[in-house]
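Reminder: ligand-aware prediction takes two inputs, not one.
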Amino acid sequence: MASAPPPILTLSGISKSFPGVRALQGVDLDVLPGEVHCLLGQNGAGKSTLIKVVSGAHQPDAGEITWQGEHTVIGSPSAAMRLGIATIYQELDLIEHVSVTENVHLGNEKSKAGFVRRGAARAATADILARLGHPEISPDRIVSSLSAAGRQVVSMARALSHDAKLIIMDEPSAVLDPDEVNNLFRIVDNLTEAGVAIVYISHRLEEIRRIGDRVTVLKDGRAVARGLPADTTATRDIVSLMTGRDIEHPFPERPGPPPAAADATPVLHVEGLAREGEFAPLDLTVQAGEIVGLAGLVGSGRSEILETIYGARRPTAGRVLVGGRPLRPGNVTSAVRAGVGLAPEERKAQALFLLDSVTRNVTISSLPRFSRGGWLDRSGERKAAREHTRELSLRPDNPEARIRTLSGGNQQKAVLARWLLRDCKVLLLDEPTRGVDVGARAELYALIRRLADEGVAVLLVSSEIPEVLGLADRVLVVREGQVVHTAPAPELDEHRVLDLVMEGSPA
Ligand SMILES: Nc1ncnc2c1ncn2[C@@H]1O[C@H](COP(=O)(O)OP(=O)(O)OP(=O)(O)O)[C@@H](O)[C@H]1O
Ligand SMILES: [Mg+2]
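Here is what comes back for the chain with adenosine-5'-triphosphate:
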């Protein structure tokens, strides 16, 4: 048998600090051609920083990079691209107001000149999109009009278009549904068979078990373990290495039989709510203390339903009542006044004030509470924010840190803390654990359950079916804008829900 090929990439002793944070401390890593090398670690462990060093977005303070046997300085993202390193970032970096084709071929010399080449670029883009299982995305589409998942696909298409030898994927599956994840894995298989190396970051351990050849675990900026993902005991070990503890059962116990009597006024009552072309007339109620989950594929209308309840989209029919009183349709202010909160799916575009501090991002929806005769009680503000960011173990534990400098999962925690602070009656959660590590997930689940126990009505959307089943009391399965099935969560299992979201046998 041939001996193992030499690594395509070797990192040795990579360190990187930001003001007040040692993000990476002497990390060694090697990546072999044709392997899927997974990076694991809690939120803020340094995964994105490490890959940004490889993709030329950050310069390391110390350490060496060897690419195809030669010491290399990767001075910029375009230098990385020229070397054959393509990256799909956690925060997508697409140019919003140009077409899919232009984004895909960005920085790719082949496509620069002329009309003929533009035609070729367009055809090549269509081809890659089809390979990715998305022939419906037109190469001419303006990127800003695409959904989160659509953008992810475009970002992936861009990485594929460069004939890269190494493709880095930072949580690519976070916005994909199970079918799309399978598709992604098929593509990864084809790439690795052709000798392309993949560095894959995900918080979903089952994915790593499925496609990972080797795993490196980062903790507090150091590589603390390496191994094979194959057997589950190793996976369990990996979790405790990452988190420093065992997590046996992530979901909190349900309080028993469904809360509130059937004749009590539900906190949230949705009556025949519809948006033409998005979702069919929908009826649902959520009682105080209840967590209702919407399960369905990306693009099945779940986010649109939440946004319409919140008033960010105007319904074409039906109405929403909170505590028996109707909200003004398509009016966010009316919803917020009535005590409705929405933690949206796309936190960067919709929810974060990137230049502001963690504190302000948490308190922004509750500011009146901190105003004292026209002045803002800043210490009260900070104290209140901190209480909730600590509950979620948000890192770094620095109320003044700019939210932009936080790791992806920690930004998500800040958005959630905002709604914890706001004393909502109805909480609409759209993919609340996206990008959140396994340890913090368990804490987050406990918190959501505690809010419900305190009387909040929670409506939850998640692409991760086990999450919906584990956390919700009742589950509505949505397919193509229609509720095809409703059942108490304990009566469902993952296969049944998958069958329902794929085939949809109306019930
Ligand atoms: N530009 C920056 N300025 C200051 N601190 C930063 C910056 N970028 C990252 N950090 C800090 O570096 C540490 C590592 O962050 P990184 O984004 O690499 O984590 P991660 O492992 O990717 O986490 P996640 O799973 O949440 O995405 C964190 O403490 C983060 O706050
Ligand atoms: Mg990250």
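The CA atoms of residues 239 and 245 lie 8 Å apart. Residues 115-131 form the longest helix (17 residues). We will return to this case in the review session.
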